[in-house]
Amino acid sequence: MITEVVLPQMGLEVAEGVVLALPVAVGDAVAEGDVVAEVETDKAIAEVAAPRAGVITAIAVAEGDTIPIGTVLVRIGDSAEEVGAAVALPATEPGDAEAAADAAAADPAPPAPAVDGAAAEGAAAEGAAAEGANGARRRRAAPIARRAAAAHGISLELVTGTGPAGRITLGDVERAIAGDGQAAAAAPPAGGAGAGRLEPLSATRQSIARRLSESQLIPQYTLSRELDAGWLLAEKARLSAAGPVRVGVLDLLLAALAETVSRHRQLAASFVPAGDGEPASYRHPEGVDLGLAVATERGLLVPVIRGAERRGLAELVLERARLVDLTRAGRLGPADMGAASATLSSLGGFGVDSFTAMLNPGESAILAAGRTVEKAVPRERGIAVVPTISLTFTFDHRVVDGAVGGAALTELAELLEGGIEWPT
Predict the structure, then answer these.
(1) Are 19 and 62 in the same domain?
(2) Does 219 share its domain with 82?
(3) How far apart are CA 340 and CA 360, in angstroms?
C-alpha cells in the first residue's frame, strides 16, 4: 500500500511553503514520526513526519521548490519492491505544482512496476544527460535558485545540479556564487555596475511585505498616553519575588491588554467587507487571543497566545516564554499562529521611547509600548523624578470608534498604574 505524505495545513493564512530539506532518499526505511521533509512557510519552519513506518518509494519535490498546501512530498510503501522506476518524480516548474496535485487527486496513477536499483539509477542519469545535451531546453531549477542566480549574474548553464534528476537547487547556486569553480558569472544585469545587488526575499519577508502593504489600506487612527510606571515596576518586582515564575514588564502588559480587550469586546472584532451578495459585517471571536510581535533573524513574526483572558499571570508568563522560544527557533505549530483579537508590540528592549505600530490585517487593535524612561513630573509638593512608559494604541476606525478606543486606552492605563484590581 502506498501512502502519500503531503504538505499539511499550517495556519489559516498559510497557502504555500518552500522545501528546505529532504533528509530521506528513495529506498530509505522510515519509522512513524521520522522527519521526511523540512518546509519553510511565511510563519515558521516546520518538519513533516512520516505517518507510518515503511520505505520511501518516491520523492515528489525538490529542495527549493515553492509548493501549495496539499502537495505530495514523498510516497511511502511497505517494501523496497514498491520503489518506482525513477529515483525521483519529475519536479514541477513554478505554477505547475498545484495543477499537478489536483490532477493526481482527480485521477490517481497506479503504482509503477518494480525495477532493480541499477536500472532506476541508470534511467535517472540518462534523463539528466539528455537534458544537459539539449542546449535549447531550459535548465531545470528550483524557483528560488533561479531568482538567486539572476540576482548574482550566474548562468544556470554553468551550474551543476545536485537535486533529483540533475535539478539545480539553491545550494548549488550558492556554491557557484561562493566561487567553487562550478560556474562563472554571466553578463551583469541591465543597469550597469552601479545598479546594486538584488536579494531574493524569503517566504517570511514576502509575507511581511504583503501584509504591511495590505495594512496601509486600513483606515487606522492612533491614540497615545504616557503612564507613571512606578506601580508597574514595583508590581513586577513583587510578583517575581513571591511567585513561581519571573514576571517581566512585557507579561504585565499582556495581562492588562487581555483584561482590557475582554472588557471592551469591540476591540476584538474584525471587519468583513461585503462580498458574494453578503453585506459588510463584524466578526466577533469567542475569546481573547493575543498576538505578540517577536523579532527573529527571519523577520518579524507574531505568535498567538490563545485564551489569554482565561490564564492566570504565571500561566501567561510560561506560555509567552514558550511561544517566543518556538518563534525564534522557527518551530511554531499551526495552533500557535493565525488571527488574534489584538496584538502587542514592544520595542522597549531596543531603546525606543515610543512608536506607532501598524495593524495586522484582520485585526482591529494593536498596542505599541516603549521603554521605561525617568522624567521630572509636577507633584503637590514640587517636582519628582518618576519612571514613565509610553503606550500607543492603533485601531481600525471601521470597527472601533474614537470614543471606544479612548475608553479602552484609559482603562488600560488605570490597570497599569494600579488604579484597578486585575487578576494575577
Answers:
(1) yes
(2) no
(3) 9
Q: Could you give the CA distance from residue 420 to residue 123 in angstroms, rounded to a whole number?
A: 74
Residues in the chain: 424
Domains: count for the chain: 3
Q: Is residue 324 situated within a structural domain?
A: yes
* 156's grid cell: 544556470
Calculate ∠ Cα 247-252-257, nearest 5°.
150
Residue 381 has which C-alpha cell? 509638593
**Under a CB-based contact definition with an 8 Å cutoff, are residues 338 and 304 in contact?**
yes
**CATH number of the structural domain spanning residue 177:** 4.10.320.10
Which residues in 179-189 are b (16+ Cβ under 10 Å) and which e? Answer: eeebbeeeeee
pTM greater than 0.85: no
Mean pLDDT for each consecutive 10-residue tract of the chain (424 residues)?
A: 88 76 91 90 80 94 89 90 52 42 41 39 37 46 71 80 76 78 46 69 80 91 96 93 90 96 96 90 94 89 94 95 92 83 96 95 96 91 93 97 98 90 62
Contact between 387 and 233 (Cβ < 8 Å): yes
DSSP sequence for 98-136? HHHHHHHHHSPPPPPPP--HHHHHHHHHHHHHHHHH-TT
Looking at the domain assignment, is residue 155 inside a domain?
yes
